[in-house]
Amino acid sequence: MRHRAIVAFLLLVGFVAGYSQYYQQLNNFGGIDWTAQVVRATGIGAPNPNLPPGAQRASAIEAAKVVALRNILQIVKGVYVNSETTVENMMLTSDVIRTKVEGVVRNYRVVDIRYVSTGDVEVDVEVPLSAFYEIFLNVPQQSGASPAPQVCPLCGQPWPAGKPYPQNYPVPPPSSPSGAPTPAARPGVVYSGLIIDARGLGVRPALSPKIVDEMGNEVYGTGNVSREYAVQIGVVGYEKDINRARTNERVADNPMIVKALRATGPNRTDVVISNADAQLIRQAAQNLNFLEQCKVMIILD
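Structure (tokenized):
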């Protein structure tokens, strides 16, 4: 048993090392590739010595699949749905959700089978995150969400009701992340997407995160998106490298880049940005649909 655990750990290290994108390891047998939007797990099975030699390999494969199923379900349970709950919490409160999640996991896809010298078999399986977005993202078919309250970009206070908001109001540029300059977002520029640099803040990935301003007003979340896009590609994409994120087809060719201030929420999955940056995003979103189409990425450590 100890030998199998060591093999699985070494396998996982090699498995994860091959990922240059945002991979979140959730146990010793797998995790989530948030950039590729898939949950992956490995199962290890041993041949049944009581079977004829010709049938032992097939029995090892089936045993490995059973273990992989158990492992991937355990991984899925640990996923944050939003800033307040996990998949497991929602499964415990709803038999319908539990049945749906277990059904999705049972429909895993085998992506690799390896045979080791001991006779054991290692099976890698995966499930697309889109299947879980179908279950957990309660968003409208079309955007149509009410715009977030406007705030003064200089003082951060709510803009007076009924008073016209000047479209060319000067907005101070966002601060650059430490270590490398970040191009400041500018009024009047046509943006193809949004990148939030949240490195160093302890932000955690989730199925349904939010971006809020300093007053807690939602700048981006499920209220801004189309269900079609959210289910297909997720509410946000995650990356570790900001330069690679800039060229990601999700937000390319000219993404707005904003530095986050801090994480918020019990699960630390939501991101706080400055009021000035929030207002600039709202202004851009009035004429562009990049928020509705989920063209948003968050950079994590």
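Residues 144 and 224 are 8 Å apart (CA to CA). The chain has two domains: 2-129, 137-301.
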